[in-house]
Amino acid sequence: MAVDYQKRPEAGYVTKELEAKLHKMWETKPGLFGVIATVDHKVIGIRYIVTAFAFLVVGGLQALLMRLQLAQPDQTILTPEQYNQLFSMHGITMIFLYALPILSGFSNYLFPLLLGTRDMAFPRLNAFSYWVYLASGLFMYASFLIGQAPNNGWFNYAPYALKPFNPGLNMDFYALGMVFFGISTTVGAANFVVTVMRNRAPGMSINRLPIMIWGTTTVSVGILLANPAVSLAFFLLWLDRQFGTHFYDTAGGGQPLLWQHLFWIFAHPWVYIIVLPAMGMVSDALPVFCRRPLVAYTLVILATITTMLLGFGVWVHHMFATGIPFLSMSYFSGASFIITIPSAIATFAWIATIWTGRVVVTTAFLYFAGFISMFVIGGVSGVVTASVAADLQLHDTYFVVAHIHYVLIGINLFGVLGGLYFWFPKMSGKMLSERLGRWNFWLTFLGFNLAFLPMHWTGLLGMPRRIYTYPEGAGWSWVNMLTTVGSFILAFGILLLFVNVWMSLRRGVAAGANPWDAPSLEWATASPPPAYNFTVMPVVASRHPLWEDRLGESEGHSSIERGLILDDGKEMLATSVIDAAPRAILKMPEDDPWPFLVTLAMTLGFTALLLHWWWIGLAAGVATLLGCVFWLWPRGDLAQTKGTAHE
Amino acid sequence: MMERLWNRKPSIQAPRIVGRLALAPLLALASPAIAASEESTSAPMYYLKTFGPKGDITASLTWGLLAIAAGVSVLMSVLVIVAMFRNGRSSMATPGSPLPIAHPPGGHRWIYLGLALTTLVLIALVIWTMDVLAEIDEPAGEPAFTIEVTGQQWWWEARYVDPDDPSRSFVTANELHIPVGEPVRITLASRDVIHSFWVPALAGKTDVIPGQTNETWLQADREGVYRGQCAEYCGLQHAHMALRIFADAPEAFQAWWDHQLEPADEVPEGSELLAVGERQFRLQCGACHAVRGTLAGGEAGPDLTHLMDRTTIASVTLPNTPGHLSGWIADPQHQKPGTTMPNPDLSGPELNAIRHYLETLD
C-alpha cells in the first residue's frame, strides 16, 4: 500500500501525563455497552477463567452425583439414562468447556503482558471467541432443560449416536454445539498464532519467549490442524441424523469406524492441546520459586513441539480393539511409546531446576511439585496402555479412567491452580492467603490421589467404564467407595480455593507489581495492569528482563522505563517474526458490539438448525454475514482505508 | 440335564478355586443375590490372574509394565521431594522482597542421563510388546470349531458351527461352553451398535462392530466359569450385558453340544398348566423368542430351547431361579430399565403357567 502518512514514533519515559492520556484512550466504557463491547484482553481473559471455572464446578458436581451412584453396588440413585447423560456431559464439560478455555483464559490474559504489548493481534476476534465459547457452552447445556442432554459419552461413537438408536435431540445438541464451539477455538487459536508472530516487544526474539507462549502457540497450530476433523465429523453426524445420509450407517454403506478415525485424529491431539500450555505455565512459574532460570530452555521447547507433532500420529491407540490388523497396530503402539521421550525431557528439566535451585515453598510451588508427580503417574500409566497387548485388557476399564484423570487433573488442573496462585496477584492486585492455600493444596492433592490412585486397581479388577451400576459379587465395591470418599475431599479442597479467592478479593494483602520477584515482563507493570498494559513499549535484551542484571548474562539491557511512546490513538507495535524488530504501528479497534451481536445471530442460527426452523436459520445466517460485514468494513480510524496507513 | 451339568463340575483334579465355583450355581438356586457372586473368585473380572495362554502371556507383560510404572512414579516423586529440601529453603517475607537468583550449571546432565535411561527402557518395552502381540495373534493349533457371536442391545447370541457337519449347528445365548485346553475361534458381529467382547480371565477385548466381522480366539486351560462383560458403551443397559464362559472337560463339552442340538421336549399329555403355559408363551413371547420344536420361532431375543441349562437370565443379570424368572417375565423394565423386552400383559395365572412351562426347557 502506498505510504501516505509516515510517523516516526518517539522514545520517551513513563510520565503521569502519558499514563492519564493512555488510560482515557484504552479504558473500557462503563455500563452495559462496555460489558458487551469490550475488547480488553485482560477482561476477556478473566471472563474465560471465570466461565471455565464455573463449568469446572458444574462438571465436578456431575461427577459427585455419579460417585454417589457408584459408591456401592446395585444402587438406584440415578436412572441409567440420567447416569449416561451425566457421564457424557461430565466429559464434554471438562474436556471442552473447562480444560481448553481455562488455558485460553490464562493465555488471553497473559499473552500481551508476557510479550510486552498492549493487546492481542485481533482484539475483536478475541471478544468473539469468548462470546462463541460461552454461547456454545450454554447451547449444549440447554439440553438439560428438556431432559435430553448428550448421552453417548464425549467420544460419541456411531452408530449409537444415529437416529435409530438415539432419536431425541440429545445428539443434535452435541453435534451442533461442537461445530459452534469449534468456531471459538479456531478463531482463538488463529489469534494466538498471529499475536505471537506479529506483536512482541522489540528484541523479544523467538529464543527469548516464555515457555508458556511456546506452549500456547504450539497447541494453537495444533488446533488449527485438528479442529477441521472434528467439525467435519460432527457435521456429517448431523447430516446422517437429519437428512438420512449414510456416512456412519452401515445400512447405506457407511462405516462406524469412520467416526472413530475422524474423532480421534482430532481428540488425541486435543489431549496434548489441553496440557501443553499448562506445562508451559509450570515451566515459566516453577523456576521463579527455584530462584534460577529453567534448565534446558531450548530442549523443553523442542519437546513441546515434538509432543504436539507426535500427538497427531497416535490416534489409533484409542482403537486397538477395533479389529485393526496387528501389524498396523504395532506402528501406533511404537509411536505411543516414543511420545514418552519429549515428556521425559520436560520432567527431567523441572526436577533438575528444583534440584539445582534454592526452593521457596509457596502454595504455587506445592501445586507445581504435585503436578510433576501427577504428570509422571499419568505418563507412566499412559506407557502401560501404549502397549497394545496390555491395552487389549486395560482398554475401556477404570484403569484408563484413572489414567486420563491423572493426565487432566494432574497436568491441567494442578498446573492451572499453581498458575492461579502465581498470577492471581497480577490479575487482582491482591495476594491469595498462603495459609488457606496450604489447606487448599493438601486437601485437593490428597483427595485427588485417594480418589484416583485406587482407581487403577478398580480397572485391573476389570470394571468397565460407563456402567451405571455393578453387581455386588464383582469385587469392585470397596475401591469404588474409596474413590467416592476421595472425590468429596477433592471437591472440598476446590471449594477452599473459591473461599480463598473471595477472601483475598475482600481483604487480601496488596501484591505490588512483582510480588514473587519474577523475571518476565508481566511483572514489570502494575497489578492489576492498566488497560494499556505498558505506558511505553518495553525493549527486551534477554530471556529474563527483570533478572538480567543479577544473572549478568545478557549483552545489553532491557528497557522498561524508557521506550517508544505510542499515544496517537489506540496503537501498538507490529514486529518481525523471528527477531521481533519493530516494523509498523498498528491502529487498534475501540470497544465494538459486533462480535457480541454476531454471536447472538449465530446462536439463533444454531438453535434454528436444532429445531428445524429452516427459514429462521437462513435469516440468522444472513444476519451473521451482515454482522461480519459491518464488523469488518474498512475504517479510517484503523488505517484500513486508502490514505490512512502508515508504516 | 441340569443335575448332570452341575454334578460333573467338582472334578477331583480341578484346583480349589474351580471346585468352589462349581458348587456356586447350586447356591444360586437358594440365594436371591445377583448371579455374579457365583463366579470363580471374589473378583471375576480381574485379569492379572488368568487361565489361558492368551491371557497368561498378556498378564506377565502387564505385570512388568505396572512394576516399571510404579517404580518410575516412586523414583521421580522421591527425586522431587529430595530436590525440594536439598539446598535448604528460602521464604518470602513480604510480597515483592527480592530474593537471590543464581544460575548454577549442571542441569543438562539430568536430561541426558534421564533420556538415555528412558529410551533404553522404552526400547525393551516395545520389543516385549511386539513379542506378546505376535504370540496372541493366532492360537498354536487350528481351532476345531467356531462360535459366531452376535452382540446386540443388551445380550449375546452364540451360534456354534461345526465345520464338518452343518447340521450340527445350534444357537444359544449369554452362556457359552468351550472345551478345556483347546483353542476356539470366535467371530464377532453386531446387530445394532458397537459392543466389545471381553472375558478378562482368558483374553483381551475385541470390539463387535456393525458392518464388519471381527475375529478372536479363546482358550481356557482350567475348568471353570469365566465372566465376561461388554466393554464398549452401548446404551442404557451397557452395565448389564455380561456373559459366561464355561470351560468343560472335553467329554462333558461334547455331551453339552449334543444336548443343545435336541429340540425342546414336548409338553406331557394331561398337564393343563403346562399346556396353558406353552400356548401363552407362543402367543406372548414367541414373536421374539424361539423354542426349537415348537411354533415359537422369534429371533429378536435369546433362543430359549434349553433355558434351564443356563445358570443365569437377562444376560447374566439375575440367577436362573423360579423366583427371578417370574420377576423378570413380569417386569423386565424394572429389573433392567430400557431393555428391549417389553413388560407383557399377563394375568397372574398366565405368568405362573409360562414360568412352569419354561422350567421344562432343560
TrEMBL record, chain A:
Primary enzyme class: translocase
Reactions mediated catalytically: 4 Fe(II)-[cytochrome c] + O2 + 8 H(+)(in) = 4 Fe(III)-[cytochrome c] + 2 H2O + 4 H(+)(out)
A GO BP entry: respiratory electron transport chain
Listed Gene3D superfamilies: Cytochrome c oxidase-like, subunit I domain
Domain Cytochrome oxidase subunit I profile: 25-541
Keyword hit for Transmembrane helix: yes
Main localization (coarse): membrane
Entry GO MF terms: cytochrome-c oxidase activity; heme binding; metal ion binding
Similarity section: Belongs to the heme-copper respiratory oxidase family.
Purpose: Cytochrome c oxidase is the component of the respiratory chain that catalyzes the reduction of oxygen to water. Subunits 1-3 form the functional core of the enzyme complex. CO I is the catalytic subunit of the enzyme. Electrons originating in cytochrome c are transferred via the copper A center of subunit 2 and heme A of subunit 1 to the bimetallic center formed by heme A3 and copper B.
NCBIfam families cross-referenced by the UniProt entry: CtaD_CoxA (TIGR02891)
Species of origin: Fulvimarina manganoxydans
Name by which UniProt lists this protein: Cytochrome c oxidase subunit 1
Entry annotated with the keyword Hydrolase: no
Phylogenetic classification of the source organism: Bacteria, Pseudomonadati, Pseudomonadota, Alphaproteobacteria, Hyphomicrobiales
InterPro entries named in the record: Cyt_c_oxase-like_su1_dom, Cyt_c_oxase-like_su1_sf, Cyt_C_Oxase_1, Cyt_c_oxidase_su1_bac
E.C. numbers: 7.1.1.9
Keyword list, A-Z: Cell membrane, Copper, Electron transport, Heme, Iron, Membrane, Metal-binding, Respiratory chain, Transmembrane, Transmembrane helix, Transport
TrEMBL record, chain B:
Residue span of region Disordered: 331-350
Subcellular location: Membrane
Residue ranges annotated for the Cytochrome c domain, each copy included: 272-362
Catalytic activity from the UniProt record: 4 Fe(II)-[cytochrome c] + O2 + 8 H(+)(in) = 4 Fe(III)-[cytochrome c] + 2 H2O + 4 H(+)(out)
SUPFAM superfamilies named in the record: Cupredoxins, Cytochrome c
Residue ranges occupied by any Cytochrome oxidase subunit II copper A binding domain in the UniProt entry: 142-259
PROSITE patterns referenced in this protein's UniProt entry, alphabetically: COX2, COX2_CUA, CYTC
TM annotation in the entry: 61-85, 110-130
Record's GO cellular component terms: membrane
Record keyword Transport present: yes
UniProt-listed InterPro entries: CcO_II, CcO_II-like_C, Copper_CuA, Cupredoxin, CuRO_CcO_Caa3_II, Cyt_c-like_dom, Cyt_c-like_dom_sf, Cyt_c_oxidase_su2
Gene Ontology terms: biological process: ATP synthesis coupled electron transport
Signal peptide: 1-35
Keywords, sorted A to Z: Copper, Electron transport, Heme, Iron, Membrane, Metal-binding, Respiratory chain, Signal, Transmembrane, Transmembrane helix, Transport
GO molecular function: copper ion binding; cytochrome-c oxidase activity; heme binding; oxidoreductase activity
Pfam families per the UniProt record, alphabetical: COX2, Cytochrom_C
Membrane topology according to the record: Multi-pass membrane protein
Function field: Subunits I and II form the functional core of the enzyme complex. Electrons originating in cytochrome c are transferred via heme a and Cu(A) to the binuclear center formed by heme a3 and Cu(B).
NCBIfam families assigned to the protein according to its UniProt record, in alphabetical order: CoxB (TIGR02866)
Family from the record: Belongs to the cytochrome c oxidase subunit 2 family.
Protein name in the entry: Cytochrome aa3 subunit 2
Organism whose genome encodes this protein: Fulvimarina manganoxydans
